[in-house]
């Protein structure tokens, strides 16, 4: 622990303003007064409550004077009753608006302060919580949308996720007490559809000899992929290993510069080897060296919207543009799921699946719900992500969600591609909430200049990120293009993909075979 203690002492001579706010009171003190806070109105809301303490319970005061409420959905698995309840709450209290997020969660918007306690009570009635979904807390633990299903399953990890969550959920000593947010993912399927390398703590299904377990990766964040610890974690070792990591982070994590307080920066300061030794010392476990990662399959959705899971199971994909959904539609999802015995699974790509037996596919496809969203089953919508943008986020530089939709519509009209897969991820600002850095084609919102020199909405374009069979950050292809110009550049890129790809080849495969060997200048010249 010596290296961790030295790094902590060096970096924590001064603490940041959020750490000083934490000294004023505890988040639970504020939560217990929520009824009074709601009754008193916004003018009586203390600045520290809105800037920090309420965010510990997923309640974010937005610039319109209303709240965004983030609902925790462990592993992205919603029961029928939970889906129906969220839909009802969104319709009654939140302008019938829902966002599906990149952590397999749901965000409700436009919640009035006076209704906040009521909404939380309604969600709690079906076992849903918003606790610890914001600020310096453990965020929703994500996994594959296909966890435990069909022939994609190696280890079903939802029970492990529930056990990991029980270590910190609703525990006062953990609520809002971390140095910074902490993202966790655990993957037990052959397909990596949850950006497994992009989290603070990642358990990736692996095999060591004849034993199934996980390789442990640490230190991922926006713009940085997690690194291999060299450890193989047996299934029974996951919980004590996670407990060791989070206790070490809480005790030794930096509390000075909030821009450099994630686990990544602690690892950078002390080195992975020293941190691994600290894990071993804290846990008392004798770990094996890492095994062979088993999550190596590429998966591709087609225009039918049906993904074959094997074992007589199908995942019917609802491709939801930019994750913008509604309470009415989620209630319809619950109704269709009820009549077809379907499982509801949210996706990190801001969409959802209804998982049914083979003989129920036709019934789902005859529903009004499928009819509405089947029009978005194409190469440009199937794997799309877009964060909030200027409509609801103070950091947004461009509208973003509508920009992503406009791009997808333009490309589908101009360069339709059957059987392709292109992951287009949009972030409205450099914070990167749309994880554009790992996209096949990523877009980061910025201001650009048009031909007349006027300042307009634009994007930086990135290419070649990887998040499925390996981890790799994208490289910048174009800087500060006005959005109409960006559409034309991406059209040319898609024409290249359409004309030169091999049958069944995703853009990631195509990039690995053709584009990754070219310089940016060579790619631009081809366009």
Describe the structure in brief:
This protein is an alpha+beta fold and 527 residues long. Helices cover 33% and strands 20% of the residues. The protein contains 18 helices and 21 strands.
What is the strand and helix layout of this fold?
Blueprint lengths: L1 H10 L5 H6 L4 H6 L1 H7 L6 H5 L7 E3 L5 E5 L5 E2 L1 H14 L4 E3 L5 E6 L4 H9 L33 H9 L17 E4 L13 E8 L2 E8 L8 E8 L3 H15 L10 H8 L1 H12 L4 E2 L2 E2 L12 E5 L2 E6 L5 E2 L1 H14 L2 E4 L5 E6 L3 H5 L2 H6 L10 E3 L14 H14 L9 E4 L13 E9 L5 E9 L11 E8 H18 L6 H7 L6 H7 L1
Parallel strand pairs: 6-7, 17-18, 18-19
Antiparallel strand pairs: 1-2, 2-5, 3-15, 4-5, 4-14, 7-8, 7-11, 8-9, 9-10, 12-13, 13-16, 15-16, 19-20, 20-21
Protein described:
The structure is a single chain. The protein has 527 residues and is an alpha+beta fold. 33% of the residues lie in helices and 20% in strands. The protein is built from 18 helices and 21 strands. The strands form 4 sheets. Strands 6, 7, 8, 9, 10 and 11 form a 6-stranded mixed sheet that branches. A 5-stranded antiparallel sheet has the order 1-2-5-4-14. Strand 7 (201-208) and strand 8 (211-218) form a beta hairpin. Helix 6 (80-93) runs antiparallel to helix 12 (327-340). The chain is globular. It starts with a helix and ends with a helix. The model has no long low-confidence stretch (mean pLDDT 95).
What are the main properties of this structure?
18 helices; 21 strands; single chain; globular; 527 residues; five-stranded antiparallel β-sheet
């Amino acid at each position: 622990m010596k290296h961790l203690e030295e790094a902590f002492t060096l970096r924590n001579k001064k603490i940041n303003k959020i750490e000083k706010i934490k000294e004023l009171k505890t988040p639970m003190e504020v939560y217990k007064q929520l009824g009074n806070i709601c009754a008193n109105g916004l003018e009586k809301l203390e600045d520290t409550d809105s800037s920090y303490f309420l965010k510990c319970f997923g309640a974010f005061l937005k610039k319109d004077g209303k709240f965004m409420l983030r609902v925790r959905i462990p592993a992205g698995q919603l029961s029928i009753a939970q889906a129906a309840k969220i839909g009802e709450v969104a319709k009654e209290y939140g302008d019938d608006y829902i966002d599906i997020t990149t952590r397999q969660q749901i965000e409700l918007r436009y919640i009035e302060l006076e209704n906040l306690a009521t909404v939380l009570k309604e969600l709690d009635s079906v076992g849903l919580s918003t606790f610890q979904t914001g600020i310096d807390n453990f965020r929703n633990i994500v996994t594959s949308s296909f966890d435990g299903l069909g022939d994609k399953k190696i280890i079903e990890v939802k029970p492990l996720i529930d056990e990991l969550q029980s270590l910190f959920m609703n525990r006062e000593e953990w609520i809002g007490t971390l140095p910074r947010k902490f993202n966790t993912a655990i993957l037990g399927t052959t397909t990596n559809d949850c950006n497994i390398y992009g989290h603070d703590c990642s358990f990736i299904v692996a095999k060591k000899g004849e034993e199934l377990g996980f390789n442990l990766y640490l230190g991922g964040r926006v713009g940085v992929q997690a690194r291999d610890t060299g450890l193989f974690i047996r299934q029974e070792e996951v919980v004590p290993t996670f407990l060791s990591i989070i206790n070490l982070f809480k005790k030794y994590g930096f509390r000075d510069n909030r821009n450099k307080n994630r686990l990544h920066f602690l690892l950078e300061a002390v080195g992975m080897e020293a941190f691994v030794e600290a894990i071993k010392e804290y846990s008392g476990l004798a770990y094996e060296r890492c095994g062979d990662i088993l999550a190596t399959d590429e998966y591709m959705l087609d225009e039918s919207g049906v993904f074959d899971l094997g074992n007589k199971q199908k995942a019917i994909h609802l491709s939801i543009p930019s994750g913008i959904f509604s309470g009415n539609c989620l209630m319809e999802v619950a109704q269709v799921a009820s009549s077809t015995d379907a499982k509801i699974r949210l996706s990190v790509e801001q969409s959802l699946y209804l998982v049914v037996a083979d003989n129920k596919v036709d019934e789902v496809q005859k529903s009004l719900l499928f009819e509405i969203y089947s029009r978005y089953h194409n190469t440009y919508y199937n794997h799309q992500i877009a964060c909030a943008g200027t409509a609801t986020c103070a950091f947004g530089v461009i509208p973003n969600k509508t920009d992503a939709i406009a791009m997808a519509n333009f490309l589908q009209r101009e360069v339709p591609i059957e059987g392709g897969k292109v992951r287009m991820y949009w972030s409205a600002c450099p914070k990167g909430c749309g994880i554009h850095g790992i996209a096949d084609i990523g877009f980061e919102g910025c201001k650009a200049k048009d031909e007349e020199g006027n300042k307009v909405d634009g994007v930086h374009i990135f290419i070649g990120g990887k998040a499925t069979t390996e981890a790799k950050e994208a490289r910048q292809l174009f800087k500060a293009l006005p959005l109409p110009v960006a559409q034309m550049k991406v059209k040319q890129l898609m024409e290249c993909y359409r004309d030169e790809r091999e049958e069944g080849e995703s853009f990631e495969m195509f990039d690995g075979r053709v584009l990754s060997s070219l310089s940016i200048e060579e790619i631009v010249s081809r366009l």
